[in-house]
């Protein structure tokens, strides 16, 4: 049986202290228990359950001129049970991290590790959280009942429970358990070839109402019975919450303070950054908050744990307490991401990337109500294959997918061809003329990395469809 995560962290820190007594150390154990179900053509194709555990060791080594940081990550199965064999594996990881730190040289983001302020948490020695195939009981029952011979159902459901133990040589000891999952469903009409997609994220996939989700998708299938070819161009477009989330997530990932200060990002401007600049007329606020007020299933643990350093995050900040960050506040750029060292250098507040994103400030209007008030425009379903074209403007390109619909005089009159688009989420916030009600949503493109999102639908008067994309 595997050693408890807390015991593995403590052994790692003890071995690190013996091998490199002058160095700082961070040890993290992450255990992921995951269950998945996949189906195609209304038939179950794959299901399974896995457990993966990894140990990460970070050594912060004093060097001439500063401190170097090195990281080593190893699988942590039963081979790391207490005993000489396990200690040898840990010792090799510590030695590898020390060697990597020396090779890397003094780190620009060096800072003393945050000290513990919470004492020994009561759950430190608890075991890992678990999931199992039983979590899909309701889904399987409702999904099976939804299958029809005149349509094909495809989809994927995932539930995972991630347990993390974080310990540092500065005395931090934290354990947290984060469950999460998602359900995605495609329905396809063989007669027309039209395909529709819908998805939901949830802490527990048993909370997803599959019957209701399938019903909403089925209501959209008739929209594809009339096919309308449209050329590329700029169209008034309504982006549903899922599409908005994919764009806002990429923008949040690009809000590094150092790149902005150094003139190499879309948040740079002459003499500084765009903090304080107004983006557009709508009083929108894009925030990340561990407490997730209004959306409790988006909550996450307010402590930083990372195994890499970059422009937005630093291994030297492991164990730091994090809180609410408003990236955009009332329509203005409010905050950029700074590790503690960069925050000191640029006299800015420390702000780490957040594990959820909520966009608020719109009107009390549903997606359906926004469609009903549209004279002529497009309604998207979701975005796909998003890639960056120009980091200086945050210009992105990508494809529409699984349903683009023409709206005329408040009614959906048919399905149109897919498009490739070129847009910057920054420019979209500048040009958006309406935002609706914020709701929990599932990103289509980024869901494998980021699922905690709540967004409103957005109306953009001139969304840029640069070319027609063949296929439905």
TrEMBL record:
GO biological process: proteolysis
SUPFAM superfamilies attached to this UniProt entry: Putative modulator of DNA gyrase, PmbA/TldD
InterPro entries, per database record: Metalloprtase-TldD/E_C, TldD/PmbA_sf
Highest rank taxon of the organism: Bacteria
GO MF entry, a single one: metallopeptidase activity
Keyword Ligase: no
Location of the region described as Disordered in the Swiss-Prot/TrEMBL record: 104-129
Entry keywords, A to Z: Hydrolase, Protease
Metalloprotease TldD/E C-terminal domain boundaries: 233-465
Pfam families, alphabetized: PmbA_TldD_3rd
Protein name: Putative Zn-dependent protease
Species of origin: Actinomycetospora succinea
Phylogenetic lineage: Bacteria, Bacillati, Actinomycetota, Actinomycetes, Pseudonocardiales
């Amino acid at each position: 049986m595997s050693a408890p995560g807390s015991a593995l962290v403590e052994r790692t820190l003890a071995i690190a202290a013996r091998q490199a007594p002058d160095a700082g150390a961070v040890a993290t154990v992450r255990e992921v228990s995951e269950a998945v179900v996949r189906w195609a053509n209304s038939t179950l194709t794959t299901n399974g359950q896995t457990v993966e555990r990894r140990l990460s060791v970070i050594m912060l080594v004093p060097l001439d001129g500063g401190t170097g940081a090195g990281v080593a990550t190893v699988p942590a199965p039963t081979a790391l049970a207490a005993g000489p064999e396990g200690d040898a594996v840990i010792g090799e990881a510590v030695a590898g991290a020390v060697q990597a730190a020396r090779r890397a040289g003094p780190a620009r983001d060096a800072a003393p590790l945050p000290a513990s302020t919470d004492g020994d948490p009561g759950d430190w020695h608890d075991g890992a959280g678990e999931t199992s195939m039983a979590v899909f009981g309701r889904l399987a029952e409702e999904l099976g009942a939804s299958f029809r011979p005149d349509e094909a159902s495809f989809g994927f459901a995932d539930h995972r429970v991630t347990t993390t133990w974080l310990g540092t040589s500065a005395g931090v000891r934290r354990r947290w358990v984060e469950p999460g999952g998602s359900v995605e469903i495609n329905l396809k009409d063989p007669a027309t070839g039209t395909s529709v997609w819908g998805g939901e994220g949830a802490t527990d996939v048993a909370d997803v109402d599959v019957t209701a989700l399938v019903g909403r998708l089925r209501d959209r299938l008739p929209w594809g019975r009339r096919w309308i070819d449209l050329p590329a161009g700029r169209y008034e477009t309504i982006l549903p919450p899922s599409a908005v989330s994919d764009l806002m997530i990429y923008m949040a990932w690009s809000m590094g303070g150092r790149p902005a200060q150094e003139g190499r990002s879309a948040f740079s401007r002459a003499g500084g950054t765009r903090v304080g600049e107004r983006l557009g007329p709508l009083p929108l606020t894009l925030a990340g908050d561990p407490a997730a007020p209004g959306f409790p299933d988006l909550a996450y643990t307010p402590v930083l744990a990372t195994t890499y350093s970059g422009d937005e995050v630093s291994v030297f900040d492991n164990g730091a307490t994090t809180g609410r960050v408003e990236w955009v506040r009332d329509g203005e750029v409010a905050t950029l991401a700074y590790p503690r060292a960069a925050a000191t250098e640029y006299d800015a507040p420390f702000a780490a990337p957040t594990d959820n994103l909520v966009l608020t400030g719109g009107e009390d209007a549903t997606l359906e109500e926004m469609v009903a008030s549209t004279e002529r425009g497009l309604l998207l379903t979701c975005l796909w294959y998003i890639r960056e074209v120009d980091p200086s403007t945050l210009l992105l390109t990508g494809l529409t997918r699984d349903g683009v619909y023409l709206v005329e005089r408040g009614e959906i009159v048919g399905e149109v061809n897919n498009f490739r688009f070129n847009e910057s989420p920054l420019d979209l916030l500048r040009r958006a003329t309406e935002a609706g009600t914020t709701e929990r949503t599932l990103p289509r493109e980024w869901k494998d990395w980021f699922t905690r999102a709540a967004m409103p639908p957005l109306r953009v008067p001139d969304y840029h469809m640069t070319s027609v994309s063949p296929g439905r």
